[in-house]
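Lab notebook, bench 4. The sequencing result for the construct came back, and we need a structural model before the next group meeting so we can plan mutations. Quick request posted to the team channel:

Model the 3D structure of this chain.
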Amino acid sequence: MKLLFPAAGLLCAVSGCVTVGEDSAPPAATQADVGYLREEIRRLNARLDATDGEIGRLQGELQATRAAAPDTASAAEVRSVQTQLDDVQQQVRAVDAARIKDRQEIYDDIAKKVSSLMKSSAPARAAARSPSQTGIEHVVQPGETLSVIASAYGVKLSVLVQANQLKSADQIKVGQKLFIPD
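Done. Here's the predicted structure in token form:
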């Protein structure tokens, strides 16, 4: 019991609060671009929903046409209904093809915009890297050293120095963006 109070006091004195600094907000241009992309995705999804509605309408017409056909129909009626069915099926295929094309255009458009965003926000040193090299970006925080960062990501210190074209491991600064290769 005598040791409990001094140990608790020592624990309170030694422990401290560590606060994480607020992440810096992305540039306003990037936020605007992300907002634009979200709006573009919403608009394209609305187009896809409208296309789905059109497909549903055409399928309803097809079913109504099939249901309306009497059990005993003349050859001319059968040909007429068959022609109508063929037309409806052709319309459905055309709508499906347009939907697939729209979806591909959406993906291509988004890929281009994301690519341009990534290029505009990449650090200057990223251009010096091999385009085939993949990894992530780390922003140096107060108290971090290159060896701490390397061990946190499971990479060798020499790999970090080389990937970021540093002259020495002591050359990093708070706020500096480092490339961490995979």
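The longest helix spans residues 75-121.
Will bring this to the meeting.
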